[in-house]
Specification:
This protein is mainly alpha-helical and 96 residues long. Helices cover 65% and strands 4% of the residues. The protein has one domain.
Length: 96
């Protein structure tokens, strides 16, 4: 495991120590967990952005997509545990 030095303002250091003590952790464990969660959130946001970019490229190339209300209805049905028929993509480009 690599060591890293982290300089904290005095007030933040006190808050970390108080939170760590209240949760039965060391300040080190609390900070490692906080950094881990921040990194995981940043990675998740990056994957989301990459997926959205790829979906936009696919939609632009194919001219096909799903209406927002149709997509939300499908997802709400799935989340509720009910069976849902996957909606078909529709053309969104104007005919020439």
């Amino acid at each position: 495991m690599a060591a890293t030095s982290l300089k904290l303002p005095d007030d933040l250091k006190r808050r970390v120590e108080q939170l760590a003590a209240a949760s039965g952790q060391t300040p080190h464990a609390l900070m490692v967990d906080a950094v881990r969660r921040a990194v995981e959130r940043a990675e998740l946001r990056a994957r989301f952005a990459a997926d959205a970019d790829a979906a936009e490229r696919d939609a632009m190339a194919s001219g096909q997509g799903h209406a927002l209300d149709t997509a939300f209805d499908y997802l709400a049905t799935r989340v509720s545990g009910r069976a849902a028929r996957r909606p078909r993509a529709r053309s969104w480009r104007k005919s020439s």
